[in-house]
Amino acid sequence: MNASTVTATRETVSRHTRTFLDRHASLMPTFAAVLIFAVLLIGAQIHFGTFLTPLNMSALLLDNAYLVILAVGMTFVIVTGGIDLSVGSVMALTGIWCADLLASGHSAAVVVPLIILAGAAIGLLIGVLVQYFDVQPFIASLAGLFLARGLAFVVSLDSIRVENESVLWLQTTRWRLGEWYITPTGVLALSVALIGAFVMQFTRFGRTVYAVGGNEQSARLMGLDVARTKVAVYVISGVCAGLAGLVLTAYSGAGYPRNGIGTELDVIAAVVIGGTLLTGGTGYVLGSLIGVLVFGTIKTVISFMGAEQAWTRIIIGLMLLMFIVVQRAIVVRAERRR
Amino acid sequence: MTKVVKHRLFWPAFSLVALIVLNTVVRPQFMKITVRDGELYGALIDILRNSAPLMLVALGMTIVIATRGIDLSVGAVMAVSGAVTLTIIDGAEDPGSTSTVLVAMAVGTGVALLLGAWNGFLVAVLDIQPIVATLVLMLAGRGVALLITDGFITTVNSEPLEYVSTGYLFALPFALFISVAAITAISLVERRTALGVLTEAVGINPEASRLAGVRSRGITFGAYVLSGTLAGVAGIIYSSNIRAADANAAGEFIELYAILAVVLGGTSLVGGKFTVAGTVIGVFIIQTLKSTMLFLGVPSAQSPVFFAAVVIIVVLIQSPRVHRIARGLTGGMRSRNLSAHSDAEVAA
Amino acid sequence: MDAQPLLELTGATVYFGADAALDGVDFRLFPGEVHSLMGENGAGKSTLIKAITGALPLSAGVLRLDGQVVRFGSPHDAQEVGVRSVYQEIDLLPNLSVAENISLGVEPRRFGMIDWRQMRDRAGDVLADLGLDIDPASVLGRHSLAVQQLVAIARAISTDVRVLVLDEPTSSLDTDECAELFRIIEDLKQRGVAIIFVSHFLDQVYEISDRVTVLRDGKLVGEYLTRELLRIDLVQAMLGRSAESLRTRPRLRVADGSSEEPFLSARAVTVGSRISGADIDLMEGEVLGVAGLLGSGRTELARALTGIDRLDGGIIRIQGSDEPIGNPRAAISLGVVYSSENRRTEGIVGELSVQENITLALQAERGVLRRISPARQRELAMSWIDALDIRPPDPDRPAGTLSGGNQQKVLLARLLALSPRLLVLDEPTRGIDVGAKVEVQNLVGELADNGLSVMFISAELEEVLRVGNRVAILLDGRVVDTVPSDDLTPDALTALVARPEPVG
Question: Where in the cell is it found (chain B) (predicted)?
Answer without folding.
Answer: Cell membrane
